[in-house]
């Protein structure tokens, strides 16, 4: 892929990507828990889904990237229970991902591996429901940080039951492969699917880059929690606020104010038009400088029209993108990136009204 801003090694193979609504919904999560500075009228995050991605390789291997919240999340480790109680957020889950797959006749033993973007409870789901033949794939530093698991270690967020009898693969990024400025791991060895080292938000945080078409090369970048809102990655020095928001935002979200009033809001918040509306807030267990550095690298991919960056909690996909069981590979042809890119601006309605 010829791109000086976010170069990806050339390849002729693709994977099929299907985006799964895990049925997780998280509501009333304070913005201040994740992002700063505060914004008038936006005390809470919009209701947050959690996306899972089914990755299907030509070899027949199937991977899942993230699982959302386990339906039986009350059975997670005591450490995780304390985190959930401290967040005071509303959590609902209708189905585990394994049940969503079964509805489409994809059996648990067809899943060769589960990739955890990171260890937080809204991503790990319930791997114990999958057979031991399903590997668990994690990022650097995972074993050192979380072993032994619960209950052998009462303060570990990870459960022994999720690891029992299965291979745990901790990705080694030392081979030197790069996608953009990120260290990357060519999972299948053919350039179709890369795991990406995206440190900062949590120990061993992983992203993923799936080649969805060739000629031209297009990709879906699964960002996990490297950011939690479109306004935490956009705009950037590589991608300005669009001058014509009627083109950048789907008709369903119009009418909306002109770009100038968003530029005024952004400048008052950040002192520049080349930074996102929000910066990540310091969190326990988060390397804030690493998080900012990862976002800056991801902005280079986000600005590429052949890469669709999808964070784990982006609600803008609803009503625009085809969800599981339909594939997402033709996202560019269907214009999903263009329709979702700036949809987050509607979250700022009250702040914009105050400007008027």
TrEMBL record:
SUPFAM superfamilies cross-referenced by the UniProt entry: Metallo-hydrolase/oxidoreductase
SMART domains: Lactamase_B (SM00849)
One Pfam family of this chain: Lactamase_B
Keyword Hydrolase: yes
Keywords, sorted A to Z: Hydrolase, Metal-binding, Zinc
Residues annotated as transmembrane: none
GO molecular function: hydrolase activity; metal ion binding
Keyword Nucleotide-binding: no
Domain Metallo-beta-lactamase: 49-261
Family: Belongs to the metallo-beta-lactamase superfamily.
Protein's name according to its UniProt entry: Metallo-beta-lactamase domain-containing protein
Organism annotation: Penicillium olsonii
């Amino acid at each position: 892929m010829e791109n000086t801003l976010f170069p990806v090694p050339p390849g002729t193979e693709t994977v099929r990507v299907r985006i799964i609504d895990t049925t997780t919904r998280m509501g009333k999560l304070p913005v201040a828990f994740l992002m700063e500075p505060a914004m008038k009228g936006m005390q809470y995050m919009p209701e947050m889904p959690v996306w899972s991605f089914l990755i299907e390789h030509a070899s027949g291997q199937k991977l899942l990237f993230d699982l959302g919240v386990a339906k039986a999340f009350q059975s997670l480790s005591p450490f995780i229970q304390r985190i959930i109680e401290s967040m005071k957020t509303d959590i609902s889950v209708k189905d585990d991902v394994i049940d969503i797959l079964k509805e489409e006749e994809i059996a648990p033993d067809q899943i060769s591996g589960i990739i955890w973007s990171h260890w937080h409870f809204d991503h790990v789901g319930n791997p114990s429901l999958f057979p031991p033949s399903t590997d668990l794939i994690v990022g650097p530093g995972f074993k050192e940080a979380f072993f032994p698991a619960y209950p052998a270690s009462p303060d570990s967020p990870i459960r022994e039951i999720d690891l029992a009898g299965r291979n745990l693969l901790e990705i080694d990024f030392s081979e030197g492969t790069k996608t953009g400025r990120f260290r990357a791991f060519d999972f299948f060895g053919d350039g179709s699917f890369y795991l990406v080292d995206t440190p900062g938000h949590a120990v061993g945080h992983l992203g993923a880059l799936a080649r969805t078409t060739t000629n031209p090369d297009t990709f879906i970048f699964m960002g996990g929690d490297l950011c939690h809102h479109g306004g935490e990655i956009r705009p950037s020095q590589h991608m300005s606020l669009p001058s014509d928001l009627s083109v950048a935002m789907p008709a369903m979200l119009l009418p909306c104010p002109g770009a100038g009033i968003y530029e005024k809001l952004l400048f008052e918040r950040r002192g520049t038009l080349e930074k996102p509306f929000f910066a990540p807030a310091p969190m326990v267990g988060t390397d804030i400088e690493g998080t900012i550095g990862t976002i800056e690298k991801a902005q280079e991919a986000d600005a590429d029209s052949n890469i669709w960056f999808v964070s784990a909690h982006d609600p803008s996909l609803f009503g625009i993108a085809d969800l599981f069981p339909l594939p997402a590979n033709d996202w560019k042809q269907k214009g999903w990136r263009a329709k979702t890119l700036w949809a987050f601006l509607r979250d700022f309605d009250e702040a914009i009204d105050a400007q008027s």
